[in-house]
């Protein structure tokens, strides 16, 4: 219900048109080899996501348009947003999502007139954002209900089934929707609810892809890889540096997010996987101590290239203020946030993410595989780690600090090799030269060996 006295957005019948024409989106598909996404007509789709968790609840229409326009211009093609974050979810216009905290009872008013509070509800606002995103070539990965709400006992399997059926019915005809079950939680916690949501969405909305967003330093494949409703895996590598990772067992990976990809990559049946929540730009390392060093643009680039070169089908970026849509005077500020969402929207890392998408789409796509055997000698550990990937007529190598490394050229096809350096900071190439394809060759990246001096060695043959 809308709260009396809260202004609703001006009429206009829809969102402002994007700056240029964008073809209507169709639901995404998994590629025939099970590794990647593709469009309905078979073209490669590299998932470049932005973490906008509280967009539906905290941004007004014109603010949502501002964010979507910025993200489109920066090359993002997916936004990750949660539908119900807390039991008493209320949006920027005072509209409540569900009745008395019961997700099986969404509050729906007749009509969707933005000038009439009695006709414009929480779900009309969600509809507006989803359609506005589609007009800008952006898919919306929606989390039905955040993990903490379920963990606290507010959602039974019966309520989950009814709620998921409502969502499926409302959005099955909206072509840019992706379902992201879960929400920062272990799948083993309230697993009956998560399976119910997954099965119900898959049964009633088979045209849209579904995954599960897990707790930090875990992957959806741990609990749901063999579930028919889970069509791709995502992991949350988390926000801790090496020394802060106290995880037990096999997933003591620290900052090595490429290890999650490697773990999922060998599972059967083959399913796409990627980092849906790495460390956010401008957030304290470890999250909870605002005096800690903050994750930087260099860090989010490193997480992107490490995971993608290990075989991931995309990457989701995040910023501290943007993910929580922080506004001046917010009482629910978290994680030492120091700026607003619209200031943080301009953080350097967000503008640099497009370059990994551009690089991956510039060459043959579905034939790409990770291949560490191309590296001569040790691949290195932690920040010295070199990650390698190749396609039929190219090979790519990433160094996050610009250290020297050697390549076994004799493992590549072709008589001659054309080499160049690609900058993750601005997407520009620097030619090295063309030489005969034989033996082992050492490459020396531009600049000194230091944090943030990251480069991609590009070999075309």
UniProtKB/TrEMBL annotation:
It comes from Niastella koreensis. Residues 1-10 have a biased composition (Low complexity). One of its GO terms (molecular function) is hydrolase activity. Residues 1-25 are annotated as: Disordered. InterPro entries: Apiosidase-like_cat_dom, Collagen-bd_put, GH. Keywords: Hydrolase. The keyword Thylakoid does not apply. Transmembrane segments: none annotated. The keyword Hydrolase applies. This is Glycoside hydrolase. Residues 369-460 form the Putative collagen-binding domain. Residues 31-366 form the Apiosidase-like catalytic domain. Gene3D superfamilies: Glycosidases.
